[in-house]
Amino acid sequence: MFIRLLxxxxxxxxxxxxxxxxxxxxxxxxxxxxxxxxTGVAGAYLARTQGLDTLGRIQRAMNAGxxxxxxxxxxxxxxxxxxxxLTPGLVTDILGFCLLVPVTRxxxxxxxxxxxxxxxxxxxxx
Length: 126
Description:
90% helix, 5 helices
């Protein structure tokens, strides 16, 4: 696990830096910085609106006496998307937006369910 985390925290920033340098050399430093700021502002707005919408759905489900499992998963994904968008870089911004936009979040949720189901099945095997 340590090796995976070490690779994650070293390879992702190297990839992000490489892409930012290439984009900066293609469009210039000022537009690249503006792009980073724009994605941050757009991501913060999207995280806020999606987060408040999800919070409302959680409250409605609880008021109706239901366990808001789907809404809590959405909330966790929105939180992760917001955190990922805080890191400067285009690859992490794409991942963050995928976690924030409901259409792509649904697809990622399906994939996560399959992945967790597979992991649980492996653990249950004797």
